[in-house]
Amino acid sequence: MSTSLPASCSCAVMTGFNQPLETRSFPLPRELKPGELIIKVELAGVCGTDVHLHKGELKIPLPLILGHETTGRVAAMGASDTKDWLGRPLAIGDRVSFTVGRTCKTCRYCRVYRLPSRCLNRKAYGVSTPCGEAPHLLGGYGQYHFLYADTAVFRLPDDLPSEAVVGAGCSLVTAVHGFEKLQMQWAESVLIQGSGPVGLASLAIAKEAGARPLIVIGGPRDRLERCQRFGADLTIDIDEVRDPAVRRKMVLDATGGLGADVVVECVGHPQAVVEGWELARDGGKYLVLGHYGDAGPAMLNPHLITRKELTVLGAWGSEPQHWTIALEFLRTRRSDYPFHELITHRFSIGQVNEALQAVASWQTGKAVIVPNG
Amino acid sequence: MSTSLPASCSCAVMTGFNQPLETRSFPLPRELKPGELIIKVELAGVCGTDVHLHKGELKIPLPLILGHETTGRVAAMGASDTKDWLGRPLAIGDRVSFTVGRTCKTCRYCRVYRLPSRCLNRKAYGVSTPCGEAPHLLGGYGQYHFLYADTAVFRLPDDLPSEAVVGAGCSLVTAVHGFEKLQMQWAESVLIQGSGPVGLASLAIAKEAGARPLIVIGGPRDRLERCQRFGADLTIDIDEVRDPAVRRKMVLDATGGLGADVVVECVGHPQAVVEGWELARDGGKYLVLGHYGDAGPAMLNPHLITRKELTVLGAWGSEPQHWTIALEFLRTRRSDYPFHELITHRFSIGQVNEALQAVASWQTGKAVIVPNG
Amino acid sequence: MSTSLPASCSCAVMTGFNQPLETRSFPLPRELKPGELIIKVELAGVCGTDVHLHKGELKIPLPLILGHETTGRVAAMGASDTKDWLGRPLAIGDRVSFTVGRTCKTCRYCRVYRLPSRCLNRKAYGVSTPCGEAPHLLGGYGQYHFLYADTAVFRLPDDLPSEAVVGAGCSLVTAVHGFEKLQMQWAESVLIQGSGPVGLASLAIAKEAGARPLIVIGGPRDRLERCQRFGADLTIDIDEVRDPAVRRKMVLDATGGLGADVVVECVGHPQAVVEGWELARDGGKYLVLGHYGDAGPAMLNPHLITRKELTVLGAWGSEPQHWTIALEFLRTRRSDYPFHELITHRFSIGQVNEALQAVASWQTGKAVIVPNG
Amino acid sequence: MSTSLPASCSCAVMTGFNQPLETRSFPLPRELKPGELIIKVELAGVCGTDVHLHKGELKIPLPLILGHETTGRVAAMGASDTKDWLGRPLAIGDRVSFTVGRTCKTCRYCRVYRLPSRCLNRKAYGVSTPCGEAPHLLGGYGQYHFLYADTAVFRLPDDLPSEAVVGAGCSLVTAVHGFEKLQMQWAESVLIQGSGPVGLASLAIAKEAGARPLIVIGGPRDRLERCQRFGADLTIDIDEVRDPAVRRKMVLDATGGLGADVVVECVGHPQAVVEGWELARDGGKYLVLGHYGDAGPAMLNPHLITRKELTVLGAWGSEPQHWTIALEFLRTRRSDYPFHELITHRFSIGQVNEALQAVASWQTGKAVIVPNG
Fold it and tell me: Residue A298's closest CA among A326, A319, A267?
């Protein structure tokens, strides 16, 4: 059940934090169990999180093949009747993507609380799956990728380019999850704090969901221009409007004087939350979406929660059904939300350190590794 | 439409912060418009908030007659066909209580957002209604109380003692409001932080709503014993268990190892929120109910909101419909929740400074002023 | 506080069911109390409900001036400092519209249940306000319209044409209310049953809120073409596809085989509900929006509610805050949802019987009376 | 991994509808895969549904061992490290119960819609699992019961008697599921239609959740007395109060004149829904819980849904997490809700036809089969 596979393949391996990644060769698995797949990697997104992981900002096991935003083609199957997460048959050569998180389906979060995003035994490809032992190929920065049978794989339809999937990256599914928590309603005023990937994805969803007006605070200018192209009614450039009081006045002026119905934090600095609680109207909702990483605490006043009767919500990562929504959204709506245009830089495996550097210094739109390019 | 009223009456007046209240005489209004009432005060609760107001911790206008937890009897009516908030006819001699907050019914919070607790023009008897000008009698610490026509007045049924109403005080309606936001479900585990009046009222509601288990962290011991009498399954004495890590372990042990489904903050110190966010399970709800006053910020980490997928909620004061729930609850369920037994100290108007002192030093259960005693 | 008003004006009066309306002259009120207004009518929509009222299908008092979808200009004010419902000052000559329902603000639905659309004492201009006694001018089919001080009046901004307001009519605010109940989420599949005014308004909101796909079952063809212009992804012509089983198959095919996430009934025949319950997926939501009138029962099977775990919702009329949403929507989004283009027929007061006839026979888009034209 | 098991055992088998069940002997499985269990049956509840199945009212495969409310002890395990659904290790001799429904975890309802109660491939022990082929032992009416590895098994704590579990039966978990949908709040007025097992379970939960008042319409008298013992504030005997208008007046009188906030249908006759929609207040909630079986349609008026702004909800069967709630409820609260006292009749396997007859003729409280008695 496979195309003719090479015996081994090249991958970029992180062996130490803040050390250059090394190109190493790993053997491909010889035998696959039912449901297991080998994917020939097409595009592997370089996420900002990869930069943080490379700096050692999360406790993760080494050596590790980074890469958790990946598309590729099925190169080998453990069983011929394997299906994707939506029940569609898979075949050699099919173009696919997949969720990086695998959950245990037995812990209290998976079972009792129906909150698998908080599975006590979650494993994420490219993050918490070291490559020291077989099957080795557990991250996107490599020519081939191994997938366990419990991975949520999605066959990509022909009219959905891989560039859209990787261009949107893990930000879009994160935002889909966040908005599921928000239960935003059409005609609500929405403020997005942050114009990076999560901010842009949140903006796209808010626009699609009928936000009015739709405001972004962020920067730099080219990112805000992209936000306008995606439908922002008002952008506030944090480099130009440096005084929070002035920014607040701009938001109040745009929302009838009392603040936004909904504020979505997509910045990742706790100080943004301090500013954001002031920008929601009394009775409003505040989604903390940008704090996947632990950027530490800030001086926050609980009195505001009581007095303003705020609802503050969080969402962590994503679940497979958020992928079904995201992929269909990208397929049908990419003329209005051209995530596929975000990819500006392509790197080979040998250039992976340059890729991380380019992302770290904000020189890129979306950067991707093309391991078989 | 009145009993024979005196021309004037005595009230305790706050003329300066941290100054002794003075007993002054004010004339009773001679004419009442339709809907206006004069109440002969029976019991006026001394709320902890009164102590804070006396210390000048909120910007309020002086001179002021304190007292916002009041029962009394209708002594004069502006029109004979006046009804209470639930449409029941009022008559001279009827025993009543009333909400202290009056809302404008025209601002965006009253109208568009249906959030009258955040009315932009809210006025509260005993808090923001100075007594320098007629009709003067705008707080509970006096022999008579004037009520504007837009006050939500409630006729008290014969089988509901005034002691229950004032014993529960504004804490109970605040908690009713908070639990409306919470949408707590039966069989959820609930942790109450704080065993003061708001904590005890929250505990009563959580018990009534089927919390299991129902845990309280607080003190001192006599308050925790009262919590047990009201139905707490586990009480954690903050004076005995001084290490937050030990308290956390006790909460986890009582909730299956992952934290409480619901945590209700009734402490009023921001540090309690820091501790509390650690005590809710992932996906849990956290109600900030004890921060009516602004006790300042604390170092709070937004990453917890994202990672734990918390929902943090606030509720401010109360609305009249929360009174309908609270009064019916007190009427029908006071054998299980004996709020009427909480009153431990009674003071005359001349003793009002002793009353404030007693409450400030936590010597009392509930203290009340009996102005016509 | 008035322009020079005539002493009397002409109105079309319904004196008996199924009888021709008569043109009568009524005196204008000479004195207005604070908050009261006289409006010079610009456009008065002829709603399908007017046809039903004319046929006597609801118990209403006669004689009556029909018309509950009205715009006009302020011609006289009881006080110079009158404001509209959103607090904006009104002046002679201002163009306005207003909600037809006036609520008592004192019954249990207004107060305790916060459900003013079900006010026990609701009065609706043009429906339940007979014209036999002063102030007479209580419906839209007349040259002038009297407004009580408790009416929710909205000043129309210059960039919002009256044609859009009357073109959308009471259908849009009804749909705004319905979708508030629905809490539809972006990316949900939505089926609209019915392509009349309520169906079209529901479709516009569902589109704006990110429905995907968005399906309509209705007719005749020109209405379905309008639905396509407003954004329907699929229209099913009930005249062409007469077999419910075929219609069901078309809906299933368009929704992944299991039915729509959300179905909105905008037909008004109970048999549509029978069909509709089969078209929602298990766990889906069903909004009964088209049954403002009582069209009688149908054979409905409660087993479907249990087995399919449906949520069936209703919404009745509208509240003022639904108007704030609707008017802003019309102002900002009418390039995509051209409700102003729906007006196809204009009639004078003398032609009002022809107008009713034209609407009854479905010859029109939206018909309007132009009483001062 | 087993106690010494017999080679075969006796079961009561349904070979034809409306035919007497036959006692047959089946071989016990010789080998078990990991996760599979053999249970020695202790108590098997005779559910009213069994009577309906016996009459052929649902399309089910034959031959069949009935019984879907079962407790027993682990007699053999496929692997020594098998755990129950909550992760607790299982051992030979452990007393357990289990959910009868097994879901595929791969269909759209299991995956995308998170609605496993509507799994497209659901199999239920004792209902849709014929016994013609190995492993045969797939229903409760037998000495031993085979459990597949994907069964949600619950180890019963020592302080939870099996009588409580089987006394509550599948009614309690169904009601837990229904109330999860309802999101009933404390202090809401609740009307239960029906005083059978589902009605009694719903009543217990409503009481525990703080319903006030709590009303039941049902019969016969002994069942209503049981309802009173479980906490009903008012019972209306349908045999005594035969006029629906009088029943309606009684409900209105008990709920302030406008109807109940929440109505829970537990009757199973569609006519009850017709009556019930009239008994909810405007804006109220109506849960259709008693229509697991298809009892056909009734003349229901959708106009009521619109005009009364009702929310009508359904819930089907249960999911494993509802069991966790139900079992803990029975363990901790059975002094107030003595479900264990409901068992009135015990039958051997040989008496199973008498058992069905007794249940069909309403002669029993709860009847159980004791196959190894």
Answer: A267
Cβ of C298 and D299 within 8 Å?
A: yes
The dihedral of CA B312, B316, B317, B322: what is its sign?
negative
Nearest-Cα residue of chain C relative to residue B83: C106
Query: What are the residue ranges spanned by the domains of chain B?
Result: 8-161+334-369, 171-314
Q: Please identify which residue in the block is written with the tokens 């993050």.
A: A127
Q: Are A143 and A7 in contact (CB under 8 A)?
A: no
In order of B148, D189, D247, the CA distances from D218 in angstroms are 48, 17, 11
Paired with C235 in beta bridges are C216
Q: Which of D123, D146, D124 is nearest to D134 (CA)?
A: D146
Mutate to test the interface with A, among D88, D112, D324 (most CBs of A within 10 A): D112
Q: Look at B210 and D209 and tell me if their CB atoms are within 8 Å.
A: yes
Q: Of the candidates A85, A113, A114, which has its C-beta nearest D114's C-beta?
A: A114
Q: What is the pLDDT of residue C1?
A: 55
Who among A85, A111, A321 is closest to D320 (CB)? A111
Overall residue count recorded for chain D in this entry: 373
Tell me the pLDDT band of B108, cut-offs 50, 70 and 90: very high
- Residue C364 pLDDT class (50, 70, 90 cuts): confident
Element (H, E) at B366: strand B366-369
DSSP D64: B
| Chains sharing 3 or more CB pairs under 8 A with chain B | A, C, D
Determine contact, residues A244/A225, Cβ cutoff 8 Å: no
**Would you say D172 and D47 are in contact if contact means Cβ atoms under 8 Å apart?**
no
Strands in chain D per DSSP E: 8-13, 22-27, 37-46, 70-77, 95-98, 101-102, 123-124, 144-147, 153-155, 190-193, 214-218, 234-237, 260-265, 280-288, 298-300, 311-314, 343-347, 366-369
CATH number, span A170-314:
3.40.50.720
Q: How far is CA A40 from the centre of its chain?
A: 21
Q: Which long-range contacts (CB under 8 A, 24 or more apart) does B14-19 make?
A: B14/B53, B14/B54, B14/B62, B14/B63, B14/B64, B14/B65, B14/B66, B15/B62, B15/B63, B16/B62, B17/B54, B17/B55, B17/B56, B17/B62, B18/B54, B18/B55, B18/B56
Instruction: At A249, list the tokens.
Output: 């006045």
CB contact under 8 A, B309 and A310: no
Written as six digits, the tokens of A170 are: 């893990």
In CATH terms, the fold of domain A8-161+334-369 is Quinone Oxidoreductase; Chain A, domain 1 (3.90.180)
Model confidence over C234-253: pLDDT tens digits? 999 999 999 999 999 999 99
The ipTM estimated for the assembled molecules is: 0.96
At the topology level, CATH places domain B171-314 in: Rossmann fold (3.40.50)
Inter-chain CB proximity A302 and B305 less than 8 Å: no
Residue in chain D closest to C283 (alpha carbons) equals D115
- Each of the 373 residues of chain D gets a pLDDT tens digit; together they read 566 899 999 999 999 999 999 999 999 999 999 999 999 999 999 999 999 999 998 889 999 999 999 999 999 999 999 999 999 999 999 999 999 999 999 999 999 999 999 999 999 999 999 999 999 999 999 999 999 999 999 999 999 999 999 999 999 999 999 999 999 999 999 999 999 999 999 999 999 999 999 999 999 999 999 999 999 999 999 999 999 999 999 999 999 999 999 999 999 999 999 999 999 999 999 999 999 888 999 999 999 999 999 999 999 999 999 999 999 999 999 999 999 999 999 999 999 999 999 999 878 889 999 999 8
Q: Among D140, D144, D191, D198, which residue's Cα sits nearest to residue D326?
A: D198
Give, for A250, the enclosing helix (H) or strand (E).
Answer: helix A244-254
What is the per-residue pLDDT for B57?
84
Low-confidence ranges of chain A (pLDDT < 70): 1-3
Instruction: For residues C67 and A79, give the distance between their C-alpha atoms in angstroms, rounded to a whole number.
Output: 69
